[in-house]
Amino acid sequence: MNNTSKSPSEEAVSASSRPGINDAKKRPYNSHRNGPRHYKNGSKPSASAKKTEESAAAAKPQTQKSAASKPQHANGKHPANKKAAGHGHANKPALKPNAPALPMQSSKAKVLPTDTQIYALGGLGEVGKNMYCYEHGNEIAIVDCGVLFPGDDLLGVDYVIPDYHHLIRNNNKRKVLVITHGHEDHIGGIPFLIKQVNIDAIYAPRFAKALIEKKLAEHRDAPHVPIIEIDENSAVKTRYFSIGFFNTIHSIPDSLGVLINTPNGSIVHTGDFKFDLTPIGQNADYQKMAYIGVLQPDLLMSDSTNSGVDGFSISEKDVSKEILRIMNSVSHRLIVATFASNVYRVAQIIEAAIKTGRRVAVFGRSMENVVDIGRKMGVIKIRNDQLLSPDELRTTPDRKVCILCTGSQGEPLAALSRIVNGTHRFIHLKPTDTVVFSSNPIPGNDASVNKIVDKLFRSGATVLNKSVLNNLHTTGHASKQEQKLMMQLIKPRYFMPIHGEHKMLMQHRQSALELGIPASNIFVCANGDVLLLRNHEVIQSDWRYQGDDIYVDGNDISGLSTAVLKDRRILADNGLVAVIVPIDSSTNRLLAKPVIVSRGFVFLKDAQALLREAEFIVSTNLQARLKERTTFADIKNCIRSSLEPFLYKKTHRNPIVIPVILNSRKAMEELAAQHRNRMQNRKPGYHRNKPHENKE
Ligand SMILES: [Zn+2]
Ligand SMILES: [Zn+2]
Description:
- The chain has 696 residues and is an alpha/beta fold.
- It has three domains: 8-103 and 114-310 and 477-552, 4-Layer Sandwich (Metallo-beta-lactamase, Chain A), CATH 3.60.15; 316-464, Rossmann fold (3-Layer(aba) Sandwich); 575-694, Ubiquitin-like (UB roll), CATH 3.10.20.580.
- Helix content is 33%, strand content 20%.
- It is built from 21 helices and 27 strands.
């Protein structure tokens, strides 16, 4: 759907058959394009990238260089580009210029200039990179701007961010960014966004504002955008939008729900929330939520993270009691690992430590960060003399020490992993240590957490995990009953589950159905799908924006091609084989035997015979091929097609094969002469003439 070469009918299919919840019964989810459900976190390649990948695969043999140089997003080539251009023109209905007017289903409406558009560029079908947009006329109100942390399959990728191209193309429109709270999946993308997209102002609650300012200080090249502090009493007014807020409970202070009034009706956007009748810190604005319900908002967009979890979540108060109980009962050194993002938990652990006469040593960059900002904000209360420096650790008796660290998910570089592996500069495990995990392994991290726990047991330490028997952890997100309570308070006519993988969105939809919201009023969307708010009615539009993933590698935000990642994966799994072939193109002759060099492919010492055989095969095939007229591409193809099947047959591996053709008789002769000289003189450090290397 992002490639111009695609036929118009294909385009229409992908545009009209999207999120399909309302049509789920009519249309089976069989096409790989149709459902958003198959998009795994961060691993969804853009269609254009996929195309690149496919063509790269089809065109294989191909050099690594040429595969890598294909941009994932051929800027200016996307149909969405053209579309946005059309869209920019005085809000014309978004029509694809090339697509013939195909009959759309009655449930999919064309975009009218008077509609308010609602779409996510990230956050649907994934937990991460949340970014929800409300567009009316020449204004776009954006709620949240997050990153997603990539899984192990995205080698070398630091973050995944949404594709901002739709916003870049609409840089002439007025844009405000509203932040619900300070978690990375809501603020992490800000530096990348403001470098590319004009934003009038960022409105953020107090704690998030401090975190954003800290983040932006590390990105000095980012343009200055005013950050305006908001709270539950603030109002953000633009020409078309009037935005209000209400307090919610979450694992970080100052998290807000958002009420967005548009010319077509009102939308409640919960942000991340849970309900906790005995919360630590800020309480939820139950009265305000109920009052919003009285005003009959049109659409509720609600956090789906825990829609698969039954019941009501444990109160944070119970967790803090449990932590205090453990601190009291343990008479040696305590090591507590938790999420740095759970600011209230960090505060509780520190409070309990101080209460039980311990001093606290904080390890791990994100944990130090949070403690630092939390102290400044008054959320975390600890005096300087109650903190332990690494030097003081050695001289302080164990029963007076609490080490607070990152790494509760078994992250290999986090403080806890280094402690367990014996590579931490200051802390070495003792058999008397008690290690507390005040966390739950996030699905997918179980294996690495288990590994850490196993090593802890080997060291003789006592390990305390969250289990059904204790209250060592609770979530920051509403479970099923709390989600239903939110729906009961807000009483929306239309419902759209957000913030979650497709399964979570679908389970949240089920809860909405149980509450009597008709199926036709529930919209399970994918990133990029456009809903229309038109005179208090929510309609699925026939249009979608680009909702792709952009991989951030270091500070490069140009977007890594999936072909690059594919190459990295092949390199990691199978290694690399380079074939150096000296030829004389004037006589079409091999000047010497091909030389094969490999890295990460086979253990060279054991594989000499294999490589010699491979060289022989390449040599024989090339000589046959060179009897005819050839191009360099032919020669490269010949090398790959003779080598790849052979290597696979022998090793059951598919390394990346890189042919290097040296095409200069003279250079070869010089090289040979040098070789002779070297043999005669055996003097190191002589001048070396590089032969001309033809890389095409
Ligand atoms: Zn959050
Ligand atoms: Zn979140």
